[in-house]
């Protein structure tokens, strides 16, 4: 197969980076820059510019845990896995589901 016919071998500078490494880079860089302790990754997507990763963060711990305040952060990375931006997209109580 040629490089253009293999989805993870695209000639866009991101071909050699495994998804697991991209997700770890997003979590690590968000923690370092924002001083947050990232939790789970709830979504990710390859974009023409690089990657978009959604990470859940416990912002205010409470007892019981179901009342802790969570934040959903959208992190953008370039094709090489370097963070280019982040923003909080949503804030919610851990025990609440979307309507």
Automatic annotation (TrEMBL):
This is Gas vesicle protein. InterPro entries: Gas-vesicle_GvpO. GO terms for biological process: gas vesicle organization.
């Amino acid at each position: 197969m040629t490089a253009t016919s293999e989805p993870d071998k695209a000639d866009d500078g991101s071909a050699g980076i495994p998804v697991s490494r991209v997700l770890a880079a997003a979590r690590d860089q968000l923690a370092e820059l924002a001083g947050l302790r990232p939790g789970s990754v709830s979504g990710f997507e390859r974009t023409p510019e690089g990657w978009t990763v959604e990470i859940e963060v416990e912002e205010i711990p409470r007892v019981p845990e179901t009342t802790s305040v969570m934040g959903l952060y959208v992190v953008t990375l370039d094709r090489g896995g370097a963070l280019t931006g982040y923003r909080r997209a949503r804030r919610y109580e851990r025990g609440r589901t979307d309507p």
